[in-house]
Amino acid sequence: MDAFLDHCAAQVDNHTADEAAKAFALTLDGLFERQLSRWAVAHGRNTQGLEKLLAACAQIASIDLDAIGISQDLHELHLVANVVRHGEGRSSADLQARAPDLWAIETNDFVDLAPGSTPASESLCIRVDDLKRYARAIILFWGHADPLPMAVREPIL
Predict the structure, then answer these.
(1) Residue 109 near residue 14 (C-beta atoms within 8 A)
(2) What distance in Å separates the CA atoms of residue 61 and residue 73, rounded to the nearest whole number?
(3) Residues 143-152: pLDDT tens digits?
(4) Which of 44, 89, 110, 112 could lock onto 15 through a cystine, CB 3.0 to 4.6 A?
(5) Distance CA 83, CA 23 (A)
(6) Any idea what DSSP says for residue 102?
């Protein structure tokens, strides 16, 4: 009986950690988009939507997102946030095609107890290393946008 209860506790812990990681990714994306929006407006650009904001802000700061290796991570983060926020849809399909490893979970980690089949978006699994990649991409963006000396160009995460 103790082993069963320990397994149940582990299931709850894994599920809680998974949901917390998804919520953190959603928060990172929302914060970054809000920062981009404020920065774009401060530089005379009034645009909306992460893709347009990111392009406008990269242009303002003369940043080549591909050259500094953050384009894919920033776009992936935004797709993750959309999947967490909306569930199934275009972003979920795009993310599954772009990052299928985010769905490569161990079936023993947790079990969906909701009735019916589990939508693919519910099986999204954000790991600590994913969160670190996303945070690093945001830090690098602002580090390259910062014209002052000592800007963070290689964060230690």
Answers:
(1) yes
(2) 19
(3) 999 988 888 8
(4) 110
(5) 11
(6) G
- pLDDT at residue 106 above 80? no
Q: At what angle do helices 50-61 and 71-86 cross, to 10 degrees?
A: 160
What one-letter code names the amino acid at 109? D
- Report the distance separating Cα 134 and Cα 21, nearest Å: 12
Distance CA 50, CA 63 (A): 16
Which residue do the tokens 């929302």 mark? 30
| Residue 38 one-letter amino acid | R
Q: How far is the C-alpha of 2 from the C-alpha of 146, rounded, in Å?
A: 55
Q: Based on DSSP, count helices (H) and strands (E) in the chain, helices before strands.
A: 5, 0
Q: How far apart are CA 48 and CA 53, in angstroms?
A: 6
Between vectors from CA 90 to CA 86 and to CA 35, what angle results, nearest 5°?
60
- pTM score: 0.85
Amino acid type, 120: A
